[in-house]
Amino acid sequence: MKNKLFFLTAIIIAFSQNIKAQHINFERRLVEPNIGAISDNTYKVKVADFNKDGKLDIIFSTDANDNHFGYYINNGDYDFQFNNISDMLSSDVAIGDLDKDDDIDAVIVRKDYNNNVVVMYKNDGNGVFGNETVIYPDIKNAWHIDVADMNGDNNPDIILRLRENSEIVWLENDGTANFSTQHPIYIDTTNPYLETFSYADADNDGDIDIFIRFIIDDVHKIAWLENDGSGNFSEKKYITNENNESSYMDFYITDLDGDGNKDILTFIRSKSDIVWYKNDGSGNFGEEILIYDYFSEPKKIYATDIDADGDEDIFVYSAPDNVTKWFPNYGQAQFPVKLNATDFFDKLSTMCSGDLDNDGDLELILGSSDTGDAIEYLIPKPCEISNPDNIQGTTTVDTTQTYEYQVNNQSGDIASWYVTNNGKFISNNNYVKWKEIGTGSVCVVFSHNDECSSDMYCIDVNVTATGINELTKENDIVLNPNPAKNKLQLTFNNQQLNSKNIIIYNVFGQIVKQLNTDKKQLSIDISDLQNGVYFLKTGNISKKFIVK
User: Please, are residues 45 and 64 in contact by the beta-carbon 8 Å criterion?
Assistant: First the structure.
């Protein structure tokens, strides 16, 4: 006789897993602690080894009325020496070996009365920059600038956003830092405000594609333009929904889930939600995936592997609070906890990262557009905190109730909850109302004073049909081997579970395989699945397995 479950209220300890993390907080330092804020009103910072001594130096450009464009030589042990390049008023800066002489040159947008012009400073190989060279005298009203090889000839070209006509162009480098030919990338005279651009290989075809953020009817959108390999670009392909009324502000291109594809990280102005868009590797971006709901007025966003665990972590600056928070990535784009990175850093304008002390991990470099503030950097330092264990709560649930989950050894630290349903983040609360039938996961992370986080401890939850559900025993279906490589053997020990539809989906809730069977045993070919965690669902039962 079948057992019936109307409302399951028993509290049990479920199968669990502990996801390791690097436990760090930050030491905050000024680049120029004793000589005043030469680099206040910072517009952009970048890092490179300009004098070829094996240490990363910091170059910066300024905005507003600060006539400084220069860089800091890294003497080692966090000792930086300022070197002025120009006293001309600049805005954006880009770097690259423009003349292919094995050193890093600089190119800036120089403010020249009513028109901005593009000028280059060649490096002599010892970190000494020569006189400026106007690259393309007919370029007026340049604004944003970057350097990349646009046509696959191994010469670094220059990409420019022009303020007039919402235009992006690229200037072709002949290999000797001569830029005589201008090529169009994007122009749209009907929508007169193109906000910014960035670049990456969106479709994994080996060339540089362009990503843009622009305004249509007061709504901010993100799209990308496909490069044919020769520097010719397609019409825009929307990443954010073309008909969505949400405005997407600052964005950053990075591989958040570690699958080798460039994803989009951004935030929504109206809801202050931090979200990302997963790239399938061919430049097709999925639905919006929530990372954190209601972050206080985010203004800048950035990602880098600050804790040296192989995953991209997220940094977000909040304007009204003048603080920068960070979200450690616990693997496969899981961000369970928000931590402090800096307090009271006014008007953060730019972020980048680099290994300033050659110790194998990265420092985060910050620049401020506020007069009186300067360039700072954050040094990751190990910290100690206890790890959670033994989450208690209901692990067979339906979608009609709210369920509470608890952790035994909280010990005064803050418990941050991270709950997913079919791989989608749904809650950062320990009171959970499950949304969809399938598989869920309840995870918890401890944090101490919002500055140090623990490992993440998780349990699996089976979300059954709404209302009355049938209880099944743990061994009603068996997956073997687990982990599996090329074949997964499915065995039905309960005959009433035969003739079932079988669905396999990944941690993002995407269906990767679907089949039917009326047999007691079935061998499933999983050779086409990438390594990772998957869930097999049949009826109201979900089982996790690993491909490796």
Answer: no
**Closest Cα to residue 326, out of 7, 19, 28?**
28
Nearest-angstrom CA–CA distance, 13 and 23: 26
DSSP string covering 235-262, please?
A: S-EESS-TT----EEEEEEE-SSSSSS-
Taking CA atoms, 18 is separated from 409, 477, 533, in Å, by 14, 25, 14
Pair of tokens at residue 536: 């097999």
- The residue behind tokens 């279906």 is 477
The DSSP result for 453-493, as a single string, is: EEEEEEEEEEE--SSSEE---TTSEEEESSSBSSEEEEEES
Q: How far apart are CA 363 and CA 373, in angstroms?
A: 19
> What amino acid is encoded at 122 in this protein?
K
In 3-state terms the chain splits into helix, strand, coil percentages (rounded to 5) of 0, 50, 45
Question: By three-state DSSP, how is residue 495 classified?
Answer: helix
**Three-class secondary structure of residue 499 per DSSP:** coil
Q: Which string of b and e fits 61-78 if b means at least 16 CB within 10 Å?
A: bbbeebebbbbbbbeeee
Residue 311 CA to residue 329 CA, distance in Å, equals: 6
Q: What are phi and psi of 464, to 5 degrees?
A: -100, 180
First to last CA, the chain: 39
Tell me the pLDDT tens digit for each residue of 236-257: 999 987 666 667 789 999 999 9
User: CB–CB of 403/392 below 8 Å?
Assistant: no
Q: Which tokens belong to 37?
A: 């804020």
Least Cα distance to 83 among 59, 109, 55 occurs for: 59
Q: Which two tokens stand for residue 520?
A: 């007691």
Interstrand relation of 396-397 and 452-463 (parallel, antiparallel or unpaired): parallel
Backbone torsions φ then ψ of 212, nearest 5 degrees: -130, 150
pTM for the whole thing?
Answer: 0.82
Cα 503 from Cα 489, distance rounded (Å):
14
Q: What is the pLDDT of residues 34-86, one digit of tens each?
A: 444 455 678 899 999 999 999 999 999 887 566 678 899 999 999 999 888 88
Burial, 177: exposed, middle or buried (Cβ in 10 Å; 0-12, 13-18, 19+)?
buried
Closest listed residue to residue 45, CA positions, set 248, 349, 332: 349
Q: Give whichever of 53-57, 129-133, 486-490 has the largest mean pLDDT.
A: 53-57
Token pair belonging to 217: 């009817």
Amino acid at 427: S
Contact 312, 330 (CB under 8 A): no
The residues near 309 (Cβ < 8 Å, ≥ 6 apart) are 20, 21, 22, 329
- Ramachandran angles phi, psi of 321, nearest 5°: -95, -10
